[in-house]
Automatic annotation (TrEMBL):
One of its GO terms (molecular function) is glyoxalase III activity. It comes from Flagellimonas meridianipacifica. GO terms for cellular component: cytoplasm. Gene3D superfamilies: 3.40.50.880. The chain crosses the membrane at residues 12-33. This is Putative intracellular protease/amidase. The lineage of its organism: Bacteria, Pseudomonadati, Bacteroidota, Flavobacteriia, Flavobacteriales. Keywords: Hydrolase, Lyase, Membrane, Protease, Stress response, Transmembrane, Transmembrane helix. GO terms for biological process: methylglyoxal catabolic process to D-lactate via S-lactoyl-glutathione; proteolysis.
């Protein structure tokens, strides 16, 4: 039959060859990801095992309030939501390691829903889950209406898509922000956390965000993950911040980006949390305690270098990190960014980042 239809024959051969190539590429791509047995198991790590949390901790410098969402679903969509664990845990430990006590509040109080992304969890995040004091605070959050703003040196609004639903209209949250900001205390927010800022008016009648440079989860980041976001959320965060007079400071997708406008500090996404929390400490008048960067942060630095300076500089940085600085790079994050490029239809960037992932594996094994 195929002899009678040569076009069909060669089409089938071409299709079979393509499938073999795709399968082979998929197998090779998965080989770039560290196997489970190659990864360090952090699930049982305790806070007492982390020198950053136990050594050279300054004396009590005051209290910081962390606020998380109480929302458990994204409006009427039925999609599950909550606060992002990594955005709370990392900031919580930065504040604690720098001498601050941290209280945790939420609009409704009690135990809010937490979102845990297993692929993004590091040793500090697992330590937070194993920290009996921290867990007691997350299971018994203080209702924001019971908060006395004057008790705190700063407030930090944790992200999580639920923040888009119960932060913006909450009058107690607006009061906390207004009183701390006007007292020259620090207001911080990360990812969707800046939703808390969108309806805050100062005593002089001016909107808090007017002419302020801020960062938050971008439209591009939101719509790539949830194409129907405009119909699910009450607004897109970037649009709302800009509508209220803010100058939106947009960085590369899913990479670290913060904005520091005096005592207002905002971050674009979860990967901005470490730097944002340390910038808040700095704004409170203290030099942040030294902290070794995590493998994830090292990967972010490599990706930023790739974005700004190209593949050659990124590869040089990878070699420097492994051979000179003797630090680890979370290459899974680089691989994820290659998939993001594929989702965007940017095939050149996809292959560039796959190559960077492969190079990272090669240098790691050589080191």
């Amino acid at each position: 039959m195929l002899k009678k239809y040569p076009v069909l024959k060669w089409s089938l051969i071409s299709l079979a060859s393509l499938l073999v190539l795709l399968f082979g590429f998929g197998v090779w791509f998965m080989s770039l990801i560290p196997k489970k047995e190659e990864q360090i198991d952090h699930t049982k790590v305790e806070p007492s095992e982390l020198p950053y949390l136990t050594q050279n901790v300054p004396n009590h410098r005051g209290r910081i309030l962390a606020v998380v969402t109480s929302a458990k679903t994204m409006g009427t969509s039925g999609k599950i939501t909550g606060y992002e664990l990594t955005e709370l845990s990392r900031a919580y430990y930065v504040f604690q390691a720098n001498g601050f006590e941290v209280d945790i509040a939420s609009p409704q109080g009690g135990e809010p829903k937490v979102i845990i992304d297993d692929e993004d969890m590091g040793e500090f995040d697992f330590a937070f889950l194993n920290d009996s004091v921290a867990q007691n605070k997350t299971k018994n959050t203080i209702p924001v209406e019971d908060i006395f703003p004057s008790d705190y040196q700063a407030v930090f609004f944790v992200g999580g898509k639920g923040a888009m639903f119960d932060f913006p209209e909450n009058k107690a949250i607006q009061t906390i922000i207004r009183e701390l900001y006007q007292s020259n205390k620090v207001v911080g927010a990360v990812c969707h956390g800046p939703a808390a800022l969108v309806n805050v008016t100062l005593d002089n009648g001016q909107h808090l965000l007017e002419n302020k440079t801020v960062s938050g989860f971008t439209n591009k980041e939101e719509l790539l993950l949830i194409p129907e976001a405009k119909t699910i959320f009450p607004f897109l965060l970037q649009d709302k911040l800009e509508a209220q007079g803010a100058q939106f400071n947009e960085g590369a997708m899913y990479l670290e980006q913060i904005s520091h406008e005096k005592n207002l500090v905002t971050g674009q996404n979860p990967w901005s949390t470490w730097k944002l929390a340390e910038t808040m400490v700095q704004e409170m008048g203290y030099t942040p305690k030294y902290r070794a960067l995590t493998p994830e942060e090292n990967a972010v630095e490599v990706l930023v270098t790739y974005e700004t300076s190209g593949s050659r500089k990124a590869k040089a940085l990878i070699e420097q990190m492994y051979t000179e600085e003797k630090v680890e790079i979370e290459r899974v994050l680089i691989a994820k960014h290659s998939l993001i490029a594929a989702m965007q239809g940017n095939i050149g960037r996809f292959f560039g980042l796959v190559g960077l992932t492969s190079y990272t594996k090669k240098i790691a094994q050589k080191g």
